[in-house]
Amino acid sequence: MQFIDLETQQKRIKPALEKRIRTVLDHGKYIMGPEVAELEKTLAAYTNVNYGIGCASGTDALLMALMAYQVGPGDAVFTTPFTFIATAEVLQLLGATPVFVDIDPGTFNIDPVLLEKAIIDFDKNQRDKHPISDKPDSALTPKGIIAVDLFGQPADYSAINTIAKQHDLFVIEDAAQSFGAEYNGKKSCSLANIACTSFFPAKPLGGYGDGGMCFTDDDRLADVMRSIRNHGQGSDKYDNIRIGINGRLDTLQAAILLTKFDIFPDEIQLRNEVSNRYSSMLKDMNALATPIIKKNCRSVWAQYSLIAQTTEQRDIFQKALKDNNIPTAIYYPKPLHLQTAFHTLGYQKGDFPISEQCAEAIFSLPMHPYLSESTQWEISSILKHVKL
Asked: Cα–Cα 20 to 30 A to 287, which of 135, 144, 195, 294?
């Protein structure tokens, strides 16, 4: 059984896919070819924003967004510790400091109440609540927020954007897992000053390699990010007006994504049908908590994640599935504040209890648009017959 079934999807689009790839091979414009501009225009229109700026990965998208805001040493950016490392990694690459805030236990996204408290505490220089390195908080300037749309459900941007405006902070939407989702009737990638998504193959809209895109309505930010992705280019490739990166999106990946996008709305519907079946089949299991989707949200279900009561029980559930050749995964086994890469920030176990509790009990089931009802019945039956 496949955790994510890309083979079935490829069979569905193979003729159109091969035609798109052949077109690129025929024109030979492999770097920033016409398909890149077409993809940017298509996805910007889909999300109802003015600009899409394609790039080499979701990580590069985050990096470009932060560079556009000139984030660097001395800047503090608030974000969640319950996410993939890229969210905070890009901050430290630029010399900035991530300030972690715990999550809502239902959605796994950053908790706006705790976010506002963290910002106020930080402004009041209450160092005991933010053990950041060996520097006093006064040495850092709060500059922005990176909210993460974990597992495909957007964070609470009405609250987050209001808080940001009150404290003069930018907001970046880390939509690496949520492209195609909705919040209050608006599409993911239109919910903050800049949004960043990933086209990693396992994402709801994924290529056959790395890729990403930034979205914004801001003319200036769009121009700056276009420059940054191409070595800080100005009027031509030998006119470098700023320090940038080699962050361009390959033309072949853009062609693949355009083909996949043709069936993307249908796949979102199928993903929601799969998730609804899972939740219905597992609703009576007291030992497992199923995902919570807010009424004002529509998820794209990058993952379908369950919470066991203990780590030991999670292990038993995973073993039962593995014994029946059903793959599972853990997103994420260790929150960022406990990762060795961030040890200089000075956080300790217990600083973000909700994130830690989730990490100790969460696991994800196979999730993709082509998961059959019979396969889901098999998975749910195995889980229901586990003896704890």
From this structure: 294
